[in-house]
Amino acid sequence: MGNREDLLAGARRVIVERGVAKATARDIATAAGVSLAAIGYHFGSKEQLITEALMESLGDGIGDSMEAVVGETAALPLLDGFAALWNRMPEVFAANREPLLASLDNTVRVLRDPEASRHLAEAAGEGYLGIAEQLRAARPELSDEQVDAVAKLDFALVQSLGILWLLAPDSLPSGDELARAVAVIAGAEPPAAASPVSPAG
């Protein structure tokens, strides 16, 4: 790995061990085995490094799980696949509880810094692209406009329902309920209750 990748890995280790609030630039540089100046060179600031490290961690954990379900449900009608995905998401959130908490903590801190907020906003604006890539591969019959619309909805739901799951996991709507709401809004018939997709072996 290069210094940039070492810093991302070091930041993730320090965050897990000490939390976002106690993660110092010196601790991260030491964990990465690089100089303190490397943080500024590669990321501009410790805050930007932590933000990217957390987004990468959530992308690996939540994004990879979503990609697996999207692939597994590719043969289903689109709305049934959507229901199956969101029926599975509570267990995905549970498996990524600590990164979700750290990301929420970091977001609150970043919002107090205009420059860091700008970087976070730019990253969030492109956050749906990974989901769009998964959908495009699994459902080539969809147009680019359709893929982007579904991916943006999924991304918005990940952000909002991830926080809701942290606060009140039992209040999370099921995938079937979400699909029914989409069908009602669109004036379509709601799908039959989807069976949860078994985790990939």
TrEMBL record:
The membrane-spanning stretches of this chain are none
Q: Where is the HTH tetR-type domain?
A: 1-61
The record's keywords, sorted A to Z, are: DNA-binding
Q: Does the keyword DNA-binding apply?
A: yes
What GO molecular functions are on record for this protein? DNA-binding transcription factor activity; transcription cis-regulatory region binding
Q: Which Gene3D superfamilies match?
A: Tetracycline Repressor, domain 2 (1.10.357.10)
- Which residue intervals are the DNA-binding region? 24-43
Q: Which InterPro entries match?
A: Homeodomain-like_sf, HTH-type_TetR-like_transc_reg, HTH_TetR, Tet_transcr_reg_TetR-rel_C_sf
This chain belongs to the protein called TetR/AcrR family transcriptional regulator
